[in-house]
Specification:
Keywords: Aminotransferase, Transferase. Belongs to the class-I pyridoxal-phosphate-dependent aminotransferase family. Its cofactor is pyridoxal 5'-phosphate. Its EC number is 2.6.1.-. The chain is α/β, with parallel strands linked by helices. The protein folds into 2 domains: 2-44 and 290-391, Aspartate Aminotransferase, domain 1, CATH 3.90.1150.10; 61-285, Aspartate Aminotransferase, domain 2, CATH 3.40.640. The protein is built from 13 helices and 12 strands. It has helices spanning 6-9, 17-28, 47-57, 72-86, 101-113, 128-136, 150-162, 185-198, 255-268, 274-285, 289-311, 337-349, 375-391; strands spanning 34-35, 96-99, 119-123, 140-144, 169-173, 201-205, 231-236, 249-253, 324-328, 351-352, 354-355, 366-370. The strands form 3 sheets. It has a 7-stranded mixed sheet with strand order 2-8-7-6-5-3-4, sandwiched between helices. Helix 4 packs parallel to helix 10, helix 5 runs parallel beside helix 6 (128-136) and helix 7 (150-162) runs parallel beside helix 8 (185-198). The radius of gyration is 21 Å and the shape is globular.
Length: 411
């Protein structure tokens, strides 16, 4: 029956389904699978944030409908974060809106600003909602290179010249999920100038702003003078404060886009549960040592994972940021593609990863490995991978039973 619905017809089969089904079958058979697939933080939310949630929930006045665009204190806290971190001034009344995670914000803004026939420029590979938020809204997506360099800028120029109608918006995501690539302020200056020149909106996904490992610190596109004329940026509490399940994010920047998102949200939700908003305010305004701790934790995991993979004969790049290793499939398995290779890795190394195809067709030569297990479990995964690569000949994979439909990637 769902084939009759236009918007559902535009969604391809869920490429993670086969791997998820194989993972579920292995666990049902009592196999110990190290799950490095979904980017779901395994560390607890810092205690002072949880304590504020508990305190707020004791007040019955917080149990009613909340504010769809975010309680005033939360919006002021986000503006304070931007002032401290990026030296960017935001008006909490007109340039900030709270969202139910950045994913909801991106999807609802897509619905607010695009119509069937509109063209949206999206890097490929990229996080699925960047593409499918607009596809669900009825727009058409044109893929562009995912690297923050001249190749992307040249592709943007071609897209404007050859797209009919002219593109409505451009998505950028640095540090990138899944690649971990970072962009510098000079690149953002080029993007803002391009967008102004061609009257295109820019939607920047900065969910991994605080997950970086060297001296190079991820900037905000809003640091570019005049960026708020064309750009809006999405941030999230999920990775920064280990609050993925709390579903708290933000959009900030261009007042016209913020107003459009706020208006759509006013019809769809009453905002996050007020105690969650109160606790999120405490997170942004309170001590930030927990961010340093989180960064050290992921750096240690990254170093163990990358070193171990290279020792096993799997040469992978060292991510500058983010919580993933974007790993090219070893040469002798490239013919399998990312879904079949992921299934092979699960069956023979007992390690679950995310197929790169799930992030766009140009990701099919890679798999995404999430650093969401402790170093003991990561070393266990590395032993399985090392043994698999040492003994396997890259032969065909036995096909598992057909997998059921599944929902889109969540993190």
């Amino acid at each position: 029956m769902t084939e009759e619905f236009h918007r559902i017809r535009r969604l391809p089969p869920y490429v993670f389904a086969e791997v998820n089904q194989a993972k579920a079958s292995a666990r049902a058979a009592a196999e110990d699978i190290v799950d490095l697939g979904m980017g779901n933080p395994d560390s607890p939310t810092p205690p002072h944030i949880v304590a504020k949630l508990v305190e707020a929930v004791q007040n019955p006045d917080t149990h009613g409908y909340s504010a769809s665009r975010g309680i005033p204190g939360l919006r002021r806290a986000l503006a304070g974060y931007y002032a401290r971190r990026f030296n960017v001034k935001l008006d909490p009344e007109t340039e900030v809106v709270a969202t139910l995670g950045s994913k909801e914000g991106l999807a609802n803004l897509a619905a607010a600003i695009s119509s069937p026939g509109d063209t949206i420029l999206v890097p490929n590979p990229s996080y699925p909602i960047h593409q499918f938020g607009f596809i669900i809204a009825g727009a058409s997506v044109r893929s562009i290179p995912h690297t923050p360099d001249d190749e992307m800028l040249q592709a943007l120029d071609r897209a404007v010249r050859h797209s009919v109608p002219k593109p409505t918006a451009l998505i950028v995501n640095f540090p990138s999920n899944p690649t971990g690539l970072m962009a510098g302020l000079d690149f953002y200056k080029e993007i803002v100038a391009f967008a102004k020149r061609h009257e295109i909106f820019v939607l920047s996904d900065l969910a991994y702003a605080e997950l970086y490992y060297g001296d190079k610190v991820p900037p905000s596109i809003l640091e570019v003078p005049g960026a708020k004329d064309v750009a809006v940026e999405f941030t999230s509490m999920s990775k920064t404060y280990n609050m993925a399940g709390w579903r708290m994010g933000f959009a900030a920047g261009n007042p016209r886009l913020i107003a459009a998102l706020t208006r759509v949200k006013s019809y769809l939700d009453y905002g996050a549960f007020t105690p969650i908003q109160v606790a999120s305010t405490a997170a942004l305004n309170g001590p930030q040592d927990c961010i340093d701790d989180m960064r050290r934790l992921y750096r240690e995991r990254r170093d163990v994972l990358v070193k171990g993979l290279k020792q096993a004969g799997w040469d992978v790049p060292v991510p500058e940021a983010g919580m993933f290793v974007w790993a090219p499939i070893p040469d002798r398995y490239k013919h399998l593609g990312s879904v079949e290779f992921s299934k092979l890795l699960l069956a023979r190394a007992k390690v679950a990863v995310a197929p790169g195809l799930g992030f766009g067709e140009h990701g099919d030569s890679h798999v995404r490995i999430a650093m969401v297990e402790n170093t003991h479990r990561i070393r266990q995964a590395l032993r399985g991978i090392r043994a698999f690569l040492a003994t396997d000949n890259g032969g065909p994979v036995t096909e598992p039973a057909a997998a059921p439909a599944a929902e889109l990637v969540k993190e």
